[in-house]
Specification:
The complex is a heterotrimer of chains A (about 110), B (about 170) and C (about 350). Chain A is mainly α and about 110 residues long. Chain A has helices at about 10-30, 30-55, 65-95. Chain C is mainly alpha-helical and about 350 residues long. Chain C contains 13 helices and no strands. Chain C has helices at about 5-20, 25-65, 80-90, 100-115, 135-145, 145-155, 160-190, 195-200, 215-230, 240-245, 255-280, 295-310, 320-350. Chain C is globular. Classes of the chains: A mainly alpha (about 110), B mainly alpha (about 170), C mainly alpha (about 350). Chains A and B meet through helix 1, helix 2 and helix 3 of A and helix 1, helix 2, helix 3, helix 4 and helix 5 of B.
Chain lengths: ~110, ~170, ~350
């Protein structure tokens, strides 16, 4: 990286890399919980972007931080419900590999 | 932390932790290891928030993600993993296409992000974030705040109903 | 007069001058400064913990009309150091079918997390490493790492007792964290800040201690904190009669010592938070300038540690269902009631 000080772009690129890693996980992992963890990585990447924009574009308004705050809460709610579903799937399929749960597909 | 050297060092160390942790999360064969690396990554992201002077958000990140979400993940892993030494495929057959797509997406993203001129001024970091955010949540953003609380309640009840044995 | 801040500033000024003289940049000097602060803090906390282990044994001995350790040093005061040496020399047994990295890192994470809390604790007048403006939240957030450590220990050991102990402790700590956090909210509502330094600064006088305005909050906090540290009557995670030793079953040598020290450290942390938020921190009862502040801080904190030890030798252990029911059906509604009352109080009196 050429520039001497850390700026907005550094955080955005970091967030992009993290998002891509999460996306790769969602696309390739077979285990449902691993997929969930990868989505958490994507959520976090987006949060970094939001907070970075909030810090560098309008630090006094806190809009980005508040949206990131809501993202965290909703991610927690999502994780709860998703894990409940995963447990249910585990009980009826004796496994949680997402490529096996295809009985809706003909 | 006014010194540029320290800031740069901190940023690169934390970024390395975030990226390495993320790679281990998606590539680790052992799910429990994935979950532990997820904790590590989320904690490093809190470090990034500190660097962006979002201290309240960093604390909430650790509290909610490490204390709740990651713990749920670990519980999920513990409850659904069959303890066997059979080595099964842990990735599906789309690894190479996915890698290609992700690389392309990342290249596009980095190009787009670094090429866009953002209107960054030399604005100073706000000092007292917690109070301002709290006030905003109770005034300007009170409707989303209440809706999120209803959503949380719904998620709580929903999760119990779904996971309950009948 | 007896304050340590001036002394520390003088010593650090001397060291920083020395480092600058040999040509280090300001950033590097700052980095070395942080490292020294961390090392000193670690040393002080380690000494406190060693003392606490000895003290627990002495207190329990006195309560059971025994003598306790008497041989090594005056009244056995360096018994803990002897024990630590013994544990260091012991063979570090790693069972066969364990998940090694998880098993190895669990005690490290628990110990480091227990130690990291002290970054934002005001030990005395000016004796605070970093007065974070989210201090209270920081402490609550960092202590959640303990649970991750316990779960890792339970899972990594590949042992049914360890796993059950890990599960139990995770469930317990997560449940009691909710009333604990809510009970601290009352103090935060009155003080209008999350910074521990400011909260202590507001309690300059015996009757300004927040315990007088938050008695219910303090009681809830103290019960929940006892459960958080896995102390009797809430010591189910390592109920020796049911679970061998809970999540530490498969640990030996140095790793066991780390769990053991982390447990005592958590006990000290609970007392520190109680003192800082409810009992004026380093403020003496007679105003801010009576006697050395750090001495008052440690005196109060050790008193609360003593109360925890007293609990241990007074109460029997709860059952699992009683434990969970108590957290969700008694403490949580009381914590909400406390918040409501605090809000009403602020509305009426301010």
């Amino acid at each position: 990286m050429g520039s001497a000080t850390i700026g907005l772009n550094h955080f955005l690129v970091l967030s992009g890399i993290l998002f891509t890693i999460g996306m790769f996980g969602v696309l390739t992992r077979r285990n449902a919980i691993a997929v969930l963890m990868s989505t958490e990585l994507m959520f976090n990447a987006v949060n970094i972007t939001l907070v970075a924009f909030s810090r560098y574009l309008a630090p006094a308004a806190f809009t980005g931080q508040i949206v990131a705050f809501f993202t965290i809460i909703i991610a927690a709610a999502e994780a709860t419900v998703a894990l409940a579903i995963v447990l249910l799937i585990y009980r009826s399929f004796q496994g949680i590999n997402v490529d096996r749960i295809n009985f809706m597909k003909w | 932390m006014t010194d540029a050297f320290l800031t740069n060092l901190a940023f690169y160390v934390i970024s390395f932790c975030v990226i390495a942790g993320g790679i281990f999360v998606v590539s680790s064969r052992n799910l429990f290891h994935s979950a532990v690396f997820l904790v590590f990554t989320l904690f490093s992201v809190a470090g990034i928030f500190v660097m962006l002077s979002a201290y309240l958000l960093a604390a909430i990140q650790v509290l909610v993600y490490v204390g709740a979400v990651a713990m749920l993940m670990i519980f999920g892993v513990m409850l659904t993993t069959q303890l066997s030494n059979v080595r099964i495929r842990y990735m599906n057959e789309q690894v190479w296409p996915a890698l290609l797509i992700c690389a392309g997406f990342l290249a596009l993203l980095v190009y787009g992000l670094t090429d866009t001129p953002f209107a960054t001024g030399n604005v100073a970091a706000p000092v007292e974030g917690a109070k301002a955010i709290g006030t905003l949540l109770m005034t300007k953003y009170v409707l989303p705040f209440e809706m999120v609380s209803v959503l949380l309640l719904a998620a709580l009840v929903g999760a119990i109903v779904i996971a309950k044995k009948d | 007069m007896f304050e340590l801040r001036g002394l520390i500033d003088t010593i650090w000024g001397w060291i920083a001058g020395l480092l600058a003289d040999i040509g280090l940049s300001a950033g590097l000097v700052q980095l070395i400064g942080y490292a020294i602060i961390a090392a000193v803090l670690f040393g002080v906390i380690a000494l406190v913990v060693l003392f606490l282990v000895w003290w627990e044994r002495k207190v329990s001995a006195k309560m059971q009309d025994r003598l306790g350790p008497m041989r090594v040093g005056w009244h056995g005061i360096i018994q803990t150091i002897a024990d630590a040496m013994k544990l260091l020399q012991k063979e570090d047994i790693t069972p066969k079918n364990i998940d090694f990295p998880i098993h190895f890192w669990a005690p490290v994470i628990t110990f480091v997390a227990a130690f990291m809390v002290y970054v934002t604790v005001p030990f005395g007048k000016g004796l605070i490493v970093a007065d974070l403006n989210v201090g209270v939240l920081y402490i609550i957030a960092i202590t959640t790492f303990t649970v991750i450590g316990l779960l890792m220990a339970g899972w990594g050991s590949n042992n049914k007792y360890a796993l059950l102990g890990g599960f139990r402790s995770a469930a317990q700590v997560v449940s009691y964290e909710v009333p604990l956090t809510l009970s601290l909210l009352g103090v935060i509502m009155i003080s209008q800040t999350l910074s521990l330094g400011t909260i202590v600064g507001q309690q300059d006088g015996f009757f300004k201690w927040y315990v007088w305005r938050q008695p219910l909050g303090f009681v809830i906090f103290w019960i929940a904190a006892t459960a958080e540290c896995n102390r009797t009557p809430f010591d189910l995670p390592e109920a020796d009669s049911e679970l061998v030793a809970g999540f530490v079953t498969e640990y030996s040598g140095m790793k066991f010592a780390m769990f053991f020290l982390a447990e005592f450290l958590n006990m000290f942390t609970a007392s520190v938070v109680a003192v800082t938020l409810f009992f004026g921190g380093w403020m003496s009862p007679f105003g801010p300038d009576f006697g050395p502040s750090w001495l008052w801080f440690f005196a109060k904190t050790f008193f609360f540690v003593f109360v925890l030890m007293w609990f241990r030798w007074t109460y029997p252990r709860l059952r699992v269902d009683q434990l969970m029911g108590f957290a969700w059906k008694v403490l949580l509604p009381l914590a909400f009631l406390n918040i409501l009352l605090t809000g009403l109080g602020i509305y009426i009196f301010d």
